[in-house]
Structures are given as C-alpha cells and as structure tokens.
Write a sequence for this structure.
C-alpha cells in the first residue's frame, strides 16, 4: 500500500511540476519486428496487395514456375526450376532440372513436362523478345535434364527462359500456350503452376484482368517452409487515393501498395503502415505516338524540344521527392549497361541557355497534346504539365485506374493508329535487370512500340539480340545514343520503388518486377493472426525503411 | 516694515521679487527639463529593451525557423550544405542571448534547439519525411511557445516603457502645476508688494500734496497763520525726509512770516501814528527779512530825521506849512511802502502758483518725483527771493 501511495504522490508531483511549455518530438519506432515474426505459416495469415502496373507479370511470378526466375542480380536471373545450365555452344544449352518438385495439383515436375511446355511455347510463342525467331527445339536428355537448340545465337536466351511459364499437364491440355502481346499468363484459377502460390480466384493476363485476384499458399512449393503467408488478395485496379487511404488509415484493408511520392510523409505517420523504399530498375515509359497520322511529334525537332523542356532535376526534387534517378533516356541508369551508355549524355533539359529556351518556345508554343495515363501517374503529369506550360504546351488527359485500358490504347496503336499523342505506362522491370525491358519499346515490329519507322535502330536491335558479353555494351551504347538523338520517348527520372507496407508485414521489395511475397513474413501482431486489439505502441510512427 | 525702506529699496524689493521669481521659474524649468530628459531616457531604455528582444531573440529565432524549413524543403544536399552553414552562428547568437533570460525561457529555447537538431539529424540520415513532420509538429509548436514567451516579455517591457512614459507624464503635469502655482504666487506677491509699496508711495505723495496745499493756503492767507500745518508722513523714505524738511521749513516760514507781518503791522502803526503827527513812534519789531529790518532801520532813521527836521521846520516855518509838508511826506512814504509790499508779494504769488501747480498735477497723477523735486526747488527759490526783498 505504501508503494502505491508513493507512486500516486510521484505521479501527482510529476503532473503538477511538468512543464507544458516543453514540446516533445514525435516518437518514431524502428522496424524491429524480427523477434515477433511468425516463422511458420498460420492458416489464417492473409495479406492484401495492390499491384497497379503489370499485375499479370507479378501474379505470374507468384503462381508459376520458370526455369530461371528474374532477379536483381547482375545477370538478371536466379535459378528456379533449373538448378544449373551448360552452354554447349552458341546454339545449344543443357539445363538440369530441380528434382522432387510437384505442380500445385500434385503432379510431378520433370523433363517431360518441360519439353511439353517448351514445345507448346514454340508453337505459340510470345513476341516481345526475339526468342520466337531463335528457339528451334528442345530435347529431353534424361528425367531432369533437357537440351535447347537455337537457330541463331541469342544472348538473351536464359533471360527469356525466366519468362516462359511451366504449366501442369492439365493446364496445357486445357489451354496450351497462346502467345500474346503481354505474354502467356494463367487464364483461370486453379493449381496449374509451380509457384509458391495457387491462383484460387480471378486472373490477370494483361489485356484482361479481374479487379481482385486471390492466391493461396502452394502446399507443394519446393522451398521448404515457404511461403510464410497462407492467403494473398491482390487488387489490380484501385484508384490511387483509395489505395492510399486503405493502406494508411485502415489496418485490414491493404497491406502493400505503391505510394505516390507525395504521400511519403503520410505513410511514416500512419498508425498501421510504414514507408518502404528501394532503388529500382523500373521505368515510367512516356511514349510519343509516331503512329498517329500527321502527328506533329513525327518532327524530331519537336520531340527534342519537348524533352529539353523537362527539367529532370526539378522533377526529381519536387515531384519524385528524390525517389528516383535522373535518366537521359527512358531506360533507368540503374542498369549497369545503361549507366555506362549514358555516361556522356546529359539530360536534355540540363544547362539550357536563354537562346535555347527562346528557340524551344518558338517550336513548342501552342502545341496541344492528348495524354493517356493511369491516375497513379497524375502527380507526375502535373509536374510535367507545369514545365511544358512554360513553353506554351497544353495537355489534355484521358485518365484510367486500370492498366488494361492503357494496353488497349498502346497495343492496338500500330494496327489502328490512335489519336493520343503521349501515353504513360508503368514499365516496371519485368525482364529482370536487363535493358531489354525498355529497348523492346523501340522495336518497330512490336505492338509495344509507337515509333513508326527507324531502320537504323532496328538493325541495332537485331544486333543486340545476337550480342555476346563482349559486344553487348557497344550495341547498348548505339541503341541508347540513337534513341537519345531521335528523342523517341519523353525522358523523365527513373523511379524508386516506394511502398506503404503494413507495419506487421516484413516485406523486402525487389528492384525488378517481382514481388517476393513467398519470402514475406508477418508478425504476431498482424491483423490476420492477432487476437485482441492492435497494441498502442505499434501505432506510433515508424522510421522509413530503406532496403 | 515697508515704511522703513527708501523708495529705491522698495523698487529694489519689487525688482528682486521678479528676479527671484524668474530664478525660481528657471530652476523649476531646468528641473523639469532634467526630469523630462531622465524620463525620456528611461522610456528610450525600455523601448531599446523591446527592440532588443526583437533584434536579439525574435528575429534570429524566425531566421532559425526559416533556415530549418529551408533545410527541410531544400531539393538536395548541395543546397542543404549551403543552408546549414547558417545554423551554428544563429544558434550561438541565441545561446548567448538566452543565457541572460529566465530559466523557463531557457528551457523552451533548449528544447527548441534540440528539436531543430532532431530535424537536421533526420535530414542527415535521409529521413526527410521525419524531418518534415518534426519541423511541422513538435518543432513548430515549440517555436510558437517560445515566440509567445518572448512576445510576453516584449509586452512586459513595452508596459514598463508605457509606465515610465506615464510617470514622466504625471511628473510633467505636476511640475506644470507647480510652475503655474509658482507663477501665480509670484504674481500675487508681486502685486501685493507692488500694491503695498505703491500705496505707501501714493499715501506719502498724497500727504505731501495735502501738506503742501495747506502750506500754500497759508501762504495765500486762505487759512489762519496759526493753524497747524504739518505733513503727516511716518515713512522714512525720501518722501518722509522731504515732508520732515518741508514741515521744518514751514514752521520757520510761518515764524518769519509772523515776524514780518508784525513788523509790517508795526510799520503800519508807526505810519498811522505818523499820519496822526506822532513822530515819536518808532518800528520796534524785528522781521525775519533783512530787507524789512533794513527798511525798519531806514524808517526809524527816516522818522528820526523827519522828527528832527519837522521840529526844525516847525521851528523854522509856519505851523501850517509844517503840517502840509508833514502830510505830503507821509503820503509819499505810504506810496513807497505800497510799492515795497507789492514787490514782496510778487514772489509769494509765484510760490503760490508753483505749489498750486504741484497740487493740480499731483491730483492728476502727473507729477514725477523728478518734477516734484524741481518744483520744490522752485518753491525754495521763490522763498529765497521773498527773503531777499
């Protein structure tokens, strides 16, 4: 009792003599949740993720197995269903397969199913690389070893294998392979893949997608103990403000979402979310539509002037909130080869003289351009619009929340030229730390390009496909200099990955377009596993997490 | 008291009063100026303190806030390193300033400084969101608390300044009243003394005027020669001395006049006796005037001679002729005496005119002291002329 009395006296004195004039700073907690992480999958564990750009790619990487998996490693891939490879010669590769692996339906994974998949692919390949012109055949060497034959040397072969999903026999019998502009992706929910998660509801194939995709942990996943989380809900087309609100202001609505850069502060102050950033090789591609009839943008002088009108430093500082890197072309300088290639290229808008600005204004004044964009990039367009308005350029927008609408404007443009002048696409590094990720938009034979004709550039791209380690950098240099000179796209800074992540989710984002959710853990305080209320001390703002 | 003072001292007293009043007023004015200067200095010192709080604390504090916010807003580290240069001197200046201010203010300042460092440390760590949040929450709140305290202090200093001004105003008003009172007192005293002195002088002059009037009446035979004529002045000033002198002279004059009149009456009696043929009568009285005494001697000699000659003639001529001759001579002598009397009355008339002139001018207050003296001198001159006849 005396102790209680003493405490009461102490508390009273503390209250009475406390100085109200002394303001305490906001206390931040660190992201120190290792000790509370659940290392075993709990049945009810569940996270919700918003993927606004190339959700089909991200979903595919979660549900499907490939021989190689794209990664941020310098070579751009890690082993997945392959455990090793041997380059016999320029046209022959032997690949050893992972043993004792089962598809999500329990069927075995071996050389037979690989051969069946590759043969199906050869019949209906995707065309956004050149594998469809170079992969000739596949041969089973033994139960866990296969041999690939190429018709022409192909430096991107292993990277391309990271894009070829290996489906179960059931899926192949039902859908087979059907090469599409956005690649081939699982067309219906079911246990058809080798990935850590099974698609249980919805789908995302690029041109088509459901607003919600549900995933469930694959009990046959080859990495023991993974994934750590049982259920994943993926949103594909939320409004940006809605997604930010769900992630920052509610505990159970959204666990991971890309964040507009101007919302970073709100994320650090959120009761439920933390700010997670990492540098990336992602890009925001802004196309000039050279396919449009009588487009003023066919004039290189105007394209160059538009590029010069963009002050990337200012965009980076005031729009990107420093979450990115200045890029002389539409390829991220975080690619080692691009960094080397752009070493001597200054961003267009840097160091302009008054004379330059006057002549640019003469060229650009009165220009009216139609813009297609997802709403998530509007913060960027406001910055660009301001800078272009200094030269008399006016912009009008068509805004959508869904990437599939962007594809409908972009991927039909070559066949039926559209009226838009500029189009934004969140070109996350789907190819895995490799400049093809952006180079493919310069290939005039592809729907992904809005360049009408440039034979010189096409010859460089052909050369690029066949390049080896020695010649790779020089051809990258050529392509980069060509697109820089011709200003085929509007160059803006390459962005970092900026995410709002639930404080109780231990997620390490990749710098390429893959979400390693199978390695993601949750803590015992996560809403999906917790009993009782969320601890108050966890509601304190959290320091920014830089990966 | 006043009556014991001479006129020049009375005027000196009056002048001294004015001088003293002027000296007192000057001293008071000097005191007011000195006091006003001190008060103005106090007001200036207080205002300086107010300005000092603005210059030494509030302005640098705003500058520090601006620098911190600039650090937060700066687009990159190049800008920040340039901006950060401004932090240490500002903090040092404020540190030095706050040493001399109360403990609570110091605590607020120390905490604000701490929060600024937290903002900067977040920036240095690349945690810009934390820096922004801190700068706009805790740091901002502490800034305004500190600012409010400084403004309160400034307000207190301003009130002090106002109080000092108010005190100065009250003091000035008191001094102003004192000056007015002093001026009034000096005016009253001056008027009082002036009145007393003027009254004293006027009374003296009036007494003089009255006494001289009676004197001239005596001279003009308008009053009895035995009637008392005295200028009643108790003052010991020039008028007192003058009245005393006049009184003395009037008595002498009266006695002389009496003697002369007695002589003339004696002469008239002798002449009457002579007319009656009494040649034995002689002038026995003694006049104040030498001429009359000489005349008396002449007359007595003449009478002696006449008697002798008459006796002789009587003896030598007939009694009738002697009588005719005697009558004829007596007639001539009467004519001569009339002429003499006429000659004697002339200066007396002049004297009377001067005194009347003095009286009239005095009544009309048109008689200065100088002129009074001049007129009195004229009176004395005519008196002497009379004496010489």
């Amino acid at each position: 009792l005396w102790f209680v009395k003493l405490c009461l006296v102490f508390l009273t004195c503390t209250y009475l003599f406390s100085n109200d004039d002394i303001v305490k700073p906001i206390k931040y907690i660190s992201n120190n949740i290792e000790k509370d992480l659940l290392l075993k999958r709990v049945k009810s564990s569940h996270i919700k993720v918003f993927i606004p750009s190339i959700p089909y790619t991200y979903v595919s990487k979660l549900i499907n197995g490939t021989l190689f998996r794209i990664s941020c490693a310098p070579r751009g891939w890690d082993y997945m269903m392959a455990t090793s490879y041997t380059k016999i010669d320029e046209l022959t590769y032997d690949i050893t397969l992972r043993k004792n692996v089962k598809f999500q339906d329990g069927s075995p994974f071996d050389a037979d199913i690989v051969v069946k998949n590759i043969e199906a692919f050869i019949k209906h390949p995707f065309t956004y690389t050149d594998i469809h012109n170079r992969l000739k055949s596949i041969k089973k060497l033994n139960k866990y070893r296969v041999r690939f034959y190429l018709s022409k040397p192909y430096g991107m072969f292993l990277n391309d294998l990271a894009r070829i999903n290996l489906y179960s026999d059931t899926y192949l019998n039902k859908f087979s392979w059907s090469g599409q502009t956005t690649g081939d992706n699982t067309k219906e929910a079911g246990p058809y893949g080798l990935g850590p998660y099974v698609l249980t509801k919805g789908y995302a194939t690029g041109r088509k997608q459901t607003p919600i995709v549900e995933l469930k942990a694959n009990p046959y996943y080859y990495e023991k103990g993974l994934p750590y989380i049982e259920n994943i809900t993926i949103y594909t087309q939320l409004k940006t403000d809605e997604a930010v609100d769900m992630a920052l202001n509610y505990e159970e609505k959204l666990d991971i979402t890309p964040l507009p850069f101007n919302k970073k502060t709100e994320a650090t102050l959120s009761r439920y979310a933390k700010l997670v950033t990492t540098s990336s090789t992602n890009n925001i591609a802004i196309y000039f539509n050279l396919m449009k009839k009588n487009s003023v943008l066919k004039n290189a002088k105007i394209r160059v002037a538009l590029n010069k009108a963009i002050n990337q430093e200012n965009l980076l500082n005031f729009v990107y909130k420093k979450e990115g890197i200045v890029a002389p072309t539409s390829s991220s300088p975080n690619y080692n080869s691009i960094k080397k290639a752009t070493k001597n290229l200054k961003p267009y808008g840097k160091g302009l003289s008054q004379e330059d600005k006057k002549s640019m204004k003469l060229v650009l004044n009165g220009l009216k351009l139609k813009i297609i964009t997802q709403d998530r990039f509007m913060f960027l367009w406001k910055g660009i619009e301001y800078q272009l308005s200094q030269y008399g350029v006016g912009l009008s927008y068509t805004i959508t929340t869904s990437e599939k609408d962007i594809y409908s404007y972009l991927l039909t443009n070559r066949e039926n030229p559209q009226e838009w002048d500029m189009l934004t696409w969140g070109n996350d590094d789907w190819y895995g730390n490799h400049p093809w990720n952006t180079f493919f938009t310069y290939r005039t034979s592809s729907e992904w390009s809005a360049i009408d004709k440039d034979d010189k550039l096409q010859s460089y791209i052909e050369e690029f496909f066949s390049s080896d380690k020695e010649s790779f950098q020089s051809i990258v240099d050529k392509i980069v200099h060509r697109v820089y000179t011709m200003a085929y796209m509007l160059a803006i800074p390459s962005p970092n990955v900026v995410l709002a992540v639930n404080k109780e989710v231990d997620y390490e984002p990749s710098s390429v377009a893959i979400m390693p959710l199978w390695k993601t853990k949750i803590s015992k305080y996560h809403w999906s596993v917790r009993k009782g209320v969320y601890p108050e001390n966890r509601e304190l703002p959290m320091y920014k997490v830089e990966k | 008291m006043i009556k014991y003072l001479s006129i020049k001292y009375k005027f000196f007293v009056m002048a001294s009063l004015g001088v003293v009043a002027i000296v007192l007023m000057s001293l008071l004015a000097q005191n007011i100026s000195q006091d006003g200067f001190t008060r103005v200095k106090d007001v200036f010192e207080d205002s300086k303190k107010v300005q000092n709080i603005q210059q030494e604390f509030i302005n640098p504090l705003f500058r520090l806030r601006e620098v911190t916010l600039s650090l937060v807003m700066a687009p990159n580290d190049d800008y920040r390193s340039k901006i950060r240069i401004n932090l240490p001197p500002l903090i040092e200046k404020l540190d030095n300033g706050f040493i001399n201010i109360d403990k609570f203010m110091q605590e607020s300042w120390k905490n604000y400084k701490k929060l600024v460092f937290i903002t900067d440390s977040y920036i240095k760590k690349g945690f810009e969101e934390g820096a922004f949040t801190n700068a706009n929450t805790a740091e901002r709140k502490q800034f305004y608390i500190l600012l409010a305290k400084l403004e309160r202090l400034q307000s207190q200093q301003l009130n002090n300044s106002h109080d000092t001004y108010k005190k100065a105003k009250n003091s000035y008003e008191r001094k102003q009243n004192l000056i007015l009172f002093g001026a009034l007192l000096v005016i009253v005293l001056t008027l009082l003394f002036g009145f007393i002195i003027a009254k004293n002088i006027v009374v003296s002059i009036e007494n003089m005027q009255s006494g001289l009037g009676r004197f001239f009446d005596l001279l003009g035979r308008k009053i009895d020669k035995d009637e008392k004529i005295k200028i009643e002045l108790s003052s010991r000033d020039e008028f007192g001395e003058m009245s005393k002198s006049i009184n003395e002279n009037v008595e002498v004059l009266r006695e002389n006049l009496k003697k002369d009149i007695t002589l003339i009456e004696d002469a008239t009696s002798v002449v009457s006796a002579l007319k009656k043929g009494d040649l034995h009568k002689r002038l026995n009285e003694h006049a104040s005037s030498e001429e009359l005494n000489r005349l008396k001697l002449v007359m007595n000699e003449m009478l002696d001679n006449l008697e002798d000659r008459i006796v002789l003639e009587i003896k030598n001529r007939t009694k009738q002729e002697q009588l005719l001759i005697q009558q004829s001579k007596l007639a001539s002598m009467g004519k001569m005496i009339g002429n003499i009397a006429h000659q004697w009355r002339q200066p007396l008339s002049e004297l009377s005119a001067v005194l009347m002139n003095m009286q009239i001018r005095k009544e009309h207050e048109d008689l200065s002291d100088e002129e009074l003296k001049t007129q009195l001198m004229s009176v004395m001159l005519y008196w002497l002329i009379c004496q010489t006849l």
About this structure: The mean pLDDT of chain B is 82. The longest helix of chain B spans residues 138-219. DSSP finds ten helices and no strands in chain B. The interface with chain A takes residues 75-76, 104, 107-108, 111, 114-115, 118, 126-130, 132-134, 137-139, 141-142, 145, 149 of chain B (CB under 8 Å).
